[in-house]
Amino acid sequence: MIDFTGKVVLITGGGSGLGRAAALAISKQGAKLVLVDMNKDSLEESKKEVLAAAPDAAVEIFEANVTNEEEVQNYVKFTLDKFGQIDGFFNNAGIEGKQNLTEDYGSDEFQKVISVNLNGVFFGMKHVLKVMKEQGSGSIVNTASVGGIRGVGNQSGYAASKHGVVGLTRNSGVEYGQYGISINAIAPGAIMTPMVEGSLKQMAGDNWEAAGKEFVSVNPMKRFGQPEEVGNLVAFLLSDSSRFINASVITIDGGQSYKY
Predict the structure, then answer these.
(1) Which positions are catalytic?
(2) Residue numbers of the domain that contains 242
(3) Cα–Cα 20 to 30 A to 249, which of 46, 117, 149, 166?
(4) Which of 23, 242, 55 is nearest to 9 (CA)?
């Protein structure tokens, strides 16, 4: 049984998608939450949904840009000021970026995706790890992607950033296991989130729904994954039930990455 009673969990990208799904899953198990995002309206909506699902939950929201190290330090400080500890960290904020062949991929666009998806994850780890090391305990889950373990056509920046997240996860898991900290990554495939919907619209425009059906037709499970399925995995990886899982990357994609 997963129990977060007395635990504090920090979630970036908490305003929508996987961040919101994880918040809902974890709040039902008694955690105190801090949700971080750039979009205040999305954060307010996430808080509303959390409180509807878990009326007694303690949930705070904080606006921040994860590409700015000072703002990352600020959300860590805010969490400590509110709750005094950080037991779990879902380091999840990310973007897809524009789709294009590598030769046509804009340099500014590449830097933008790397800044959010890789630098933002690094800054979060850097400052949360200091807290967890002093505590002598903690769990971190970084959001990678199946694009971080194999190629993804027309998404050079995204794939490069997510491969970087995988490297950071494995390296830091090796470094910090001795301090009672577990660090893992999830590698979602096609999960029906606003990001995936946006990706389909980039590829197919108004025909995105039909393109989505065609896309999942080759998945062994013949469907998109749902955010709550990922949220439940994150809850498990942040819980005491998974403490000996460390420096690992857990794929959640219906088996598509392993299909010939």
Answers:
(1) 158
(2) 8-258
(3) 46
(4) 23
